[in-house]
Amino acid sequence: MPPTGCNSGRDQIKSRIQELIDSSEVLVFSKSSCPYCVKVKDLFRELNVKYKVVELDLMDDGSGYQDMLLEMTGQKTVPNVFINKTHVGGCDKTMQAHQDGLLQQLLGGGEAYDYDLIVIGGGSGGLACSKEASLLGKKVMVLDYVVPTPKGTTWGLGGTCVNVGCIPKKLMHQTALLGTALQDARSFGWEFDENVKHNWETMKTAVNNYIGSLNWGYRVQLREKSVNYVNSFAEFVEPHKIKATNKRGKETFHTAAKFVLATGERPRYLGIPGDRELCITSDDLFSLPYCPGKTLVIGASYVALECAGFLAGLGLDVTVMVRSILLRGFDQDMANRAGEHMEAHGVTFVRKFVPTSVEELEKGTPGRLKVTAKSTESDEVFEGEYNTVLIAVGRDACTGTIGLDKVGVEVNKKNGKIPVNDEEQTNVPHIYAIGDILQGKWELTPVAIQAGKLLARRLFGGATLKCDYVNVPTTVFTPLEYGCCGLSEEKALEMYGQDNIEVYHSLFWPLEFTVPGRDNNRCYAKIICNKLDSDRVVGFHYLGPNAGEVTQGYGAAMKCGMTKEQLSGTIGIHPTCAEIYTTMEVTKSSGGDITQAGC
Amino acid sequence: MAYRLIVRRIWNAPVKDIRCPRLCASSASLFSRAPSPPVSVTSRRNVSFSVQDQEDFTERVINSNLPVLVDFHAHWCGPCKILGPRLEKAVAKQQGRVAMAKVDIDEHTDLAIEYGVSAVPTVIAMRGGDVIDQFVGIKDEEQLDSFVGKLIEQ
């Protein structure tokens, strides 16, 4: 029989522990030297939660406490965490509880949230994520709100791609291609009256009608998947609470265990006199009620070149003002070839100039504007008159006004982008981000969709598959389309070194171009192989018609690890453009001739 | 809210094919050659009204003494532009025995969502707040006359 004194000591410790548990919101039994304890304490500090620490190694009867804790909780190790009288467990359990949102619930006095997930942004990524989460049985809300452009343009559900991006862009690109086809048609024997005109309004209405039907389709899908959609602007007010403001200014509040930020980006303005008042961006162009007329496109982003390309294709007088290079981030050899083709087809390039002011000479639809620009290299000043000035100098993430500062989500101050880990998690564990607002990731609709879907499956479906951001195929819809997958030549050189890569390339003349006799030695194919890894294709580049269709298939092959040998062992489909990749023999380093001899 | 429940129940029931049988349609086309009395513009103007909001819908559609055809349409929908005037013509022929309401689904999304509209044009027939018939897509004049006629007979 143990001495009674000891027994009363045990009781004393037990009641002391119980007292601590009952009186503390957050209680951590810890040892000052234990790294796991430090981690847990850091977490609570980060969450801005007051916590009480009992350092067992710094007190006389620490081991007695530890024995009693084992008896009370079945856990002998530290840290041993209690929140609002509930035993959470050690470091791993606490971190897991934080991830699951359980910690937050315990901290909030066990209060349940309105939703399992709130998604901010109803674009491609946000919709994919919310629908998937709902399919997995979760209660989901999506908030989407389009802040009108300075010109007053606004649009429906679906985000940039559907309303002011991929969809109208490709349809207007197609409009331009049809113009080229009309010209080609004569060579093939079609005879028609000379008078061919294009009606902007007909095209605009047709394109926007299609977009209207897509907006409705998305709305119906959300209903079918039981996602609660609210057309309001969302802003964090607390870590788990957002304020939603609708267009009439009515405010409502909603809470959720987890959040996904999918707010996307909007065009950047220049910050020069007249830019917001007089210029338009891609947000306005696709629903412009009148033909833009003589147009100056400022910028050399893919948005700039695509818009300039189709406007020129409609027969408009188009000038592109470029500060430095075309298509930053893309393979420069390809970018310049795409630019040269545009130049050959009547687009004027004003290089190494930046605009300094835009003035209105005459109101109208379109009116007349005077643009002044200065050289980036000398004192030279450029002046020009245009009907429309389209700014396409880049896009800014919509992360500045959604209360991220209130909840401590880290944002890159330079560009508003959000850094995330490889599971799209921000520094605040219950807040995730997908799509164009991610730092260092692709700004592409299919990437956002994939990331959103996989994120929902990991959060709510027990899945582990992460979004693969490597070897993503994409296409720029310049008049001569540019498709690519993998590394640019510059990037491959940087990563592997000149000696370890082999570049195969070839010019080609699409069969369809031969009869009308146009654009010979313009289309170009290039692959970059890693000599250290069985000549694996690490970069794929294509400049020619139907680039999206061609690149998609080779993208799948690259995902499977395609090598040059496998590519050469593939039988081509004749006569196509894509077959060129199965017969590429000339390396860039050999300096061999790649021009196609025309008759 | 009772009517909503009824509406839902009816909506969830399998959609019966309310298109005119082939035979009926072809025989009807024989009659279409006969000159039909022209419907004056003034009477057609009053045939339909545009729903302003949820309250307006309750008052003029759900609480209506007459059966009401509700034409869910959108400005971006080509077939809607063809169906709308045809439907008005069919309703006008009934000389006040049936009313017609027009709902722009983009302006009144909640109403369209509530009534399960997933494609336009969707036309629902309501009497006493209950959905008694419906169709999606375009119909010719004879089919519409028959649809409207059935609504009155019932």
UniProtKB/TrEMBL annotation, chain A:
Organism: Anguilla anguilla (European freshwater eel)
Pfam families reported in the protein's UniProt record: Glutaredoxin, Pyr_redox_2, Pyr_redox_dim
InterPro entries, sorted: FAD/NAD-bd_sf, FAD/NAD-binding_dom, FAD/NAD-linked_Rdtase_dimer_sf, GLR_AS, Glutaredoxin, Glutaredoxin_euk/vir, GSHR/TRXR-like, Pyr_nucl-diS_OxRdtase_dimer
Residue ranges occupied by any Pyridine nucleotide-disulphide oxidoreductase dimerisation domain in the UniProt entry: 472-584
Cofactor(s) required for function per UniProt: FAD
Residue span(s) of domain FAD/NAD(P)-binding: 115-452
Keyword NADP assigned: yes
Any single Gene Ontology cellular-component annotation: mitochondrion
Keywords noted in UniProt: Disulfide bond, Electron transport, FAD, Flavoprotein, NADP, Oxidoreductase, Redox-active center, Selenocysteine, Transport
Domain of life: Eukaryota
Record's function text: Has a glutathione-disulfide oxidoreductase activity in the presence of NADPH and glutathione reductase. Reduces low molecular weight disulfides and proteins.
Family: Belongs to the class-I pyridine nucleotide-disulfide oxidoreductase family.
EC number from the UniProt entry: 1.8.1.9
Enzyme class: oxidoreductase
Keyword NADP part of the UniProt annotation: yes
GO molecular function list: flavin adenine dinucleotide binding; glutathione-disulfide reductase (NADPH) activity; thioredoxin-disulfide reductase (NADPH) activity
PANTHER family for this protein: GLUTATHIONE REDUCTASE, THIOREDOXIN-DISULFIDE REDUCTASE
Name of this protein: thioredoxin-disulfide reductase (NADPH)
Domain called Glutaredoxin: residue spans: 26-88
GO biological process, one term: glutathione metabolic process
Automatic annotation (TrEMBL), chain B:
GO cellular component: mitochondrion
Gene3D superfamilies, A to Z: Glutaredoxin
Domain Thioredoxin residue range list: 30-153
GO BP annotations, alphabetical order: cell redox homeostasis
PANTHER family membership: THIOREDOXIN, MITOCHONDRIAL
Family of the protein in this entry: Belongs to the thioredoxin family.
Record-given protein name: Thioredoxin, mitochondrial
